[in-house]
């Protein structure tokens, strides 16, 4: 923004005021009647005994001179003062500067010149004025009352009471101190920063401060405040002198998914409050040219990945010093055009922000590491070799440039989180058709998987889809339509889907509890179906899926968050709405179906349990018992332990690479189980809700039995050996026996593997309706205290409380 010209109309150079009494950091702008003022810049308001001056931030320009202020205590933070044709808003009081000729001031003002923190501005507007009335001026200064709630726009944001600024403080800086050299971080952040955020800022700063550049990945869990850490660290880097580093950076390019452009804008607004906005947000191609012609103006440029990759050549014309890529896992494919394009920007300091640094394999991780430090990691082949041969070395290298903290570090600042996995009984149609699909199994596994998932949500979804394909001439799976006839013809009723029946009860209960809910699904048709259900229940539906224009998304989210009304429900598509959204207006979230990629589910589930949330959060994952959905859940647990942890990744795990055996497993249907996942982990709790450590006695009993079993086995082995000696002649029999025993060993090994890979579930409590007392207790705790709970067969429960 261009600097406002000096206005000296009524100012006589020979008449420079002296005897500075107080000075304030302010925002200034032309006086107007607009409700939401647009400030033009930062300034300094200096009070003298007989007048006041409004100067530019660097004090080089005098913007206006006006009458003095009647009472200095009127100039509290947030106050708006009208100085003729200019208005200012007081930000904070600064230390006064001695002037060459200091007029004597009356004894009662003397304390104004003392060093901080001598003065606490009186709280009460009726307190005795510190400054006598200053007269003699033609245009009296009008002091407007502070806008309601304006003084402290950040109050409540951190969930902490506002910390009062010291009466005198340096406007710009505060210091983050640890054993190493301190880092000066702008005060607008410092007072709000959580301990993990201070560490994060130190990490980014240290990794990027090198003269020749540097790279880092901030891989914190969702909601830990990656944006505030980025803003604070990059701002500190750009204020080099104050941090004892050479002027290494003055321009920072922030590339974000288009759905998050407005989020970033809102974050800058939030932390810069009404100060001069430090970023340019490019939303359309013509903005790029406008930016290029005024590129000296502001330090930050925010642009979507889409625009960045389209206009990469233009961006190359700007000399950026820092590159930030939000949701940087978008760059995981090293050969993608997007990654290649952005990597070709010659920006020496690179920061990737992502909650999910590795979603599938080490090649993806390499792509990110190689992006931030192009010369450090050698070739991909070398890196993959390192991964398999020297995991310790690999960890060392990763630790050096990547920082990852889980949501637990912020737990003390957030309300409780309760997570549930509810296993919902398949309806009769769901059961029948699922069995048929398992028998049907053709080479086209992908579309069958799709149908099986739809069936788990509601049989009508599958039927409609098949029918539509059939009518359009695609008759590949038309024979499946035969299974839908007579009693098995879905009508779309709620009872035809176990999960939908459970959801119906949930929604009713949430409304009674006066809490808003978010419902998430992977499928548009499923969201349509849920939308119908919600409308039937007379909910007002907010819906964010791929069809909602990017520029409208933030507005939608804001509307939902601002109006807390339990008659509102937010429907979210996992893919379109997963990242970056803040849906803290809701405290209940239902994940109606799971994604193959646990990272997507985690992203979606993190929307409500995040900074700013004030209510305890309940997150429910619905799974249709015994179906493909349980298999998907099991794969997720094996892959990441239900959290996106980097060290438990399986290489090459994607839908398209399933082996025949895996496919067979995925399509196997367990109609008689109350929870196939619980069966597999062989937990001894029996669904009572007790941890294994709490059922020691029965455990020991079991162990006793196991010993007996072991004895039997060893007897069998001995017997076998004996047989072998005795009947050498019948070698074929012996060989068969050996093979059999080898096979059973292999199966045991495999079972052991499965058990181990599901170990994560031992952190959760397991409940079965076979134990009515604990079951009712669980349901009441989860907020679903309905009589009609026989749609569920099992539940897992995890809380952040203990
Ligand atoms: N210390 C803090 N005090 C108050 N609010 C905070 C603080 N840290 C972060 N927030 C707020 O919490 C919200 C979540 O932060 P942010 O979006 O940066 O998280 P994130 O780690 O990027 O999550 P995601 O990966 O989901 O986008 C933001 O609105 C942010 O302003």
Automatic annotation (TrEMBL):
Residues 508-657 form the Helicase C-terminal domain. Residues 735-745 have a biased composition (Basic and acidic residues). Pfam families: Helicase_C, SNF2-rel_dom. Residues 695-727 have a biased composition (Acidic residues). Gene3D superfamilies: P-loop containing nucleotide triphosphate hydrolases, SWI2/SNF2 ATPases, N-terminal domain, Tandem AAA-ATPase domain. Residues 695-755 are annotated as: Disordered. Residues 207-375 form the Helicase ATP-binding domain. Involved in mitotic DNA repair and meiotic recombination. Functions in the recombinational DNA repair pathway. Essential for interhomolog gene conversion (GC), but may have a less important role in intersister GC than spn-A/Rad51. In the presence of DNA, spn-A/Rad51 enhances the ATPase activity of okr/Rad54. Interacts (via N-terminus) with spn-A/Rad51. This is DNA repair and recombination protein RAD54-like. It comes from Caenorhabditis angaria.
